[in-house]
Design a protein that fits this description.
- By secondary structure, this protein is α+β, with helices and mostly antiparallel strands.
- It has six helices and 18 strands.
- 13% of the residues lie in helices and 31% in strands.
- The relative contact order is 0.21.
- It binds zinc ion (ZN).
- Zinc ion (ZN) binds next to loops.
């Protein structure tokens, strides 16, 4: 049974229609309220997803203060140059194996939080973000999706000066300033989609749509990335994988972020984040 998961005031909730339901309450205490703890039991979340209509909701999603679905991942990965058109606009060769960097977990914020730029070359990158749902080691590509709790929307905000000012370029610091990792608003289980590998993704700065692509264009798809990473290190529930951004980022035409810019990021069937630059 599919489920839609949200972090409401740092409590794990499931969503049905316009309403949210506190997971700890409707599971009679068997699932912990901390979102990170709740994500360790995705089988229970799948089961609970089918019972929501029998419960009284805790409130309206529209009134809820939403945080990042997985607020404190143990590891958070970014994947560079994972769309052909973005590699081309970056004037880089297509990668033969995934270009993986650490997007340090301290940068993770919620879907409507402000981005504190602190940079003259702040840039946006709309991304599909995978949230791991099981302890995962050496999983094959065929089974990889079953180790995923769900997907959410992410912004891999990047300080191009920090990233490209070093020789050779370094990704970790440049993508990990405080507030540089908005995620949310919802985590959608993979079985909710007809095809979780083919989702429409867009990003607008103010009224200007800058990125418009489908995740089916990923060079290394979700199954490959989960399998590949799990051969290097053990993945645990709540770990995040920012899967890469399509073309249209600000860097090629020097359209860097400035205070007051409104970043609107949408993934089909997942939702929309709105983040204002400060
Ligand atoms: Zn990125």
């Amino acid at each position: 049974m599919p489920f839609t998961f949200a972090n409401v005031d740092d409590r794990a909730c499931l969503v049905h229609g316009d309403n949210f339901y506190d997971v700890n309450r409707i599971s009679h205490g068997s699932i912990e309220s901390d979102p990170m703890a709740a994500l360790t039991d995705i089988d229970a979340l799948h089961e609970l997803g089918s019972t929501l209509a029998n419960n009284e909701p805790d409130g309206l999603l529209a009134d809820a203060k939403l945080g990042p679905p997985a607020p404190r991942p143990r590891n958070s990965f970014g994947v560079g140059l994972n769309y052909k058109d973005h590699a081309e606009e970056s004037k880089m060769d297509l990668p033969e194996s995934p270009v993986v960097f650490s997007k340090f977990p301290s940068c993770i914020v919620g879907p409507f939080d402000d981005v504190d730029l602190r940079a003259t070359r702040g840039d946006y990158e709309a991304e599909l973000v995978v949230v791991i749902g099981r302890v995962t080691r050496d999983v094959g590509t065929q089974d990889a999706w079953s180790h995923v709790a769900g997907v959410t929307v992410g912004q891999d905000i990047s300080d191009r000066k920090l990233q490209l000012g070093a020789r050779p370029p370094q990704f970790g610091l440049g993508k990990s300033r405080d507030t540089y990792g908005p995620t949310g608003p919802l985590l959608i289980s993979p079985d909710s989609f007809a095809d979780p590998d083919d989702l429409h993704i867009t990003c607008a700065i103010n009224e200007d749509t800058r990125q418009d692509a489908r995740t089916s264009a990923l060079i290394f798809d979700v199954s490959f990335l989960v399998s590949y990473l799990s051969e290097v290190m053990t993945l645990v529930p709540g770990d995040l994988i920012f899967t890469g951004t399509p073309s249209g980022v600000g860097m090629p035409d020097k359209r860097f972020l400035v205070a007051g810019d409104v970043i609107t990021t949408t993934v089909e069937g997942v939702g929309t984040m709105v983040n204002i630059c400060r």
